[in-house]
């Protein structure tokens, strides 16, 4: 698949803020408004972003309409989702992407926004995996700077922070939150392409759930296209032990790295850990739906992009 690369931003452009899952308050949004201003960007906020409907930012239709108004606004050159949580899947079939595919713009976010990433990547449009406005106050400087670089077309590589020697391989990097990827199996939003470098991250999952999800992807045939696995944060992972509130110690017997490495060994593909992305304060931006080369540079695994 040949992916479309949306136009990069320049000073004076407008970035939209949408909410396809949970809502945010005006106070929670202020940090993003201030930051985008320092980057020389104007901001438009979708009409539903501040609208609470229990956890969600309005009804499914209101959330879809909020995203649609930014997608169809020619003044908006990129869109970042305010926060994740859960709920984007309610909206994905209510949004018309036909105009967007012809004139794509950058969509940024992570976690539940994996629904948007995989759907848009399946339509042949590249996206940005990144921190979101709700997390800006706690994000590291490098996480925010990587987002700026990604939006402005200055990001050429994404490196692990852990030393490792991985075999060089090229492919299209896709993926996101593993739980969300798993939930999309069999849907039209699931991105099917060859020569995949699969990025995965997750949070607050049982270790055996991680094993089950990988096996689900494997048995569905998706992992047959994978040339390498790159891993972000796997934070707050749990096991069936007293330490996590269970009445007795009955551990799974392998941690997240051992589980992922076991699947990589089965696939006979390289695996690299320590990429600073996911449910971390150091959640650095990088591109999904772009061709990259994974290689070891000065002892660290690096995804190298070639921008048009």
- Judged by helices, strands and strand pairing, the structural class is alpha/beta
Q: Number of DSSP strands? A: 13
Mean pLDDT, as a whole number? 97
CATH topology descriptor of the largest domain:
Glucose Oxidase, domain 1
Shape: globular
Give me the CATH superfamily of the largest domain: LD-carboxypeptidase A C-terminal domain-like
- In total, the number of domains comes to 2
- The number of helical runs is 9
Rg (C-alpha, Å): 19 Å
End-to-end gap: 16 Å
The CATH top-level class label of the largest domain: Alpha Beta
Question: Helices, strands, pairings?
Answer:
Blueprint: E1 14-18, H1 26-38, E2 42-45, H2 60-71, E3 76-81, H3 88-91, H4 98-102, E4 106-109, H5 114-122, E5 127-129, H6 141-152, E6 157-159, E7 169-177, H7 178-183, E8 196-203, H8 207-219, E9 226-235, H9 256-267, E10 271-272, E11 286-288, E12 290-297, E13 300-305
Helix pairs in contact: 8-9
């Amino acid at each position: 698949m040949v992916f479309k690369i949306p136009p990069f931003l320049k000073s004076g452009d407008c970035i939209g803020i949408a909410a396809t899952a949970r809502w945010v308050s005006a106070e929670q949004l202020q940090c993003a408004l201030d930051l985008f201003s320092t980057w020389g960007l104007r901001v438009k906020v979708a009409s539903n972003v501040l609208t609470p409907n229990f956890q969600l930012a309005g009804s499914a239709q209101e959330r879809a309409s909020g995203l649609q108004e930014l997608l169809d606004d020619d003044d908006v050159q990129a869109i970042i989702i305010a926060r994740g949580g859960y709920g984007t899947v309610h909206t994905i079939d209510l949004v018309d992407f036909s105009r967007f595919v012809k004139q794509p713009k950058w969509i940024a976010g992570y976690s539940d926004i994996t629904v948007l990433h995989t759907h848009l990547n399946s339509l042949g449009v590249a996206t940005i995996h990144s921190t979101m406005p709700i997390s800006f106050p706690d994000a590291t400087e490098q996480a925010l700077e990587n987002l700026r670089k990604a939006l402005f077309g200055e990001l050429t590589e994404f490196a692990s922070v852990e030393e490792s020697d991985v075999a060089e391989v090229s492919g299209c990097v896709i993926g996101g939150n593993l739980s969300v990827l798993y939930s999309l199996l069999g849907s039209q939003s699931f991105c099917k392409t060859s020569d995949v470098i699969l990025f995965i991250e997750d949070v607050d999952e049982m270790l055996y759930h991680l094993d089950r999800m990988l096996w689900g992807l494997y048995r569905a045939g998706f992992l047959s296209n994978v040339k390498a696995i790159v891993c972000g944060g796997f934070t707050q992972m749990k096991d069936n032990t007293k330490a996590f509130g269970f009445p007795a110690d009955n551990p799974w017997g392998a941690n997240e790295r051992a589980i992922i490495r076991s699947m990589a060994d089965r696939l006979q593909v390289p695996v690299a850990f320590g990429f600073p992305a996911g449910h971390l304060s150091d959640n650095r931006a990088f591109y999904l739906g772009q061709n990259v080369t994974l290689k070891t540079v000065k002892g660290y695994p690096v995804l190298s992009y070639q921008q048009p």
